[in-house]
Amino acid sequence: MDHLFLMSGKILPTDYVSFTFFIGTMAMMAAAVFFFMEVGNTSKEWRTSVLVSGIITFIAAVHYYYMREYYANYSESPTFFRYVDWLLTVPLMCVEFYLITKKAGAKSSLLWKMILASVVMLVTGYWGEAVAPANATLWGTLSAIAYFYIVYEIWLGDVKKLATSAGSAVASANSALGWFVLVGWAIYPLGYLIGTAEGQWYASFANIGIKMDIVYNIADAINKIGFGLVIYSLSRKAA
Ligand SMILES: *C/C=C(C)/C=C/C=C(C)/C=C/C1=C(C)CCCC1(C)C
User: Fold this and answer.
1) Is domain 16-237 classified as CATH 1.20.1070.10?
2) Domain positions in the chain
3) pTM of the entire structure?
4) What is the pLDDT of residue 11?
């Protein structure tokens, strides 16, 4: 019966996966329009940063449109679209850290280290979720190491040092963005534990009562839109 409803495109009132895919699509679209429109109202120095926030939410909006449809058709996680989205948007978030610290002398080598770490984090995560789920623990651990490297750079490493020397507005934006990476991004491994639980030592995560896609969808809304708004508010504070 459920299947028939899905084929007709109907969303059941308790289908929170479909609901969050739908609202995620709308929220990302609205955020992208907002950031794009505000580029022209932004002082020259911060325009690229606000533009990148628009591009991040725009890419996510397009992927959400496809993920929503994929889930409606197959009632399966759209793992492929999910990771293509992340593979494009997470490196762009690393670009944001580079852009805000560039004034203080950030080198492109720092940008490439961050991008490389984010790609390692995502490719290993994809491997654990989609290619070799029997070894999800191993791949998830490798992914987490790359994640902690990013956290380290932002909180204690070069990004932190540059942000501090760029002045108080950049330093406080860096710590706000740093909280997104430390707390907001930490929601994703929870989704991974739920989605790959079968046959692992954390098998009980499968019965937690929240579906993996709901966790990922909520995390994306917080991390893509919230992150963009921090950049936006920095662009209003620091001339
Ligand atoms: C807009 C999308 C964002 C900010 C996605 C971030 C994704 C992560 C931080 C994923 C991290 C993972 C781990 C740290 C371990 C398990 C596998 C992942 C890929 C879910």
Assistant:
1) yes
2) 16-237
3) 0.94
4) 84
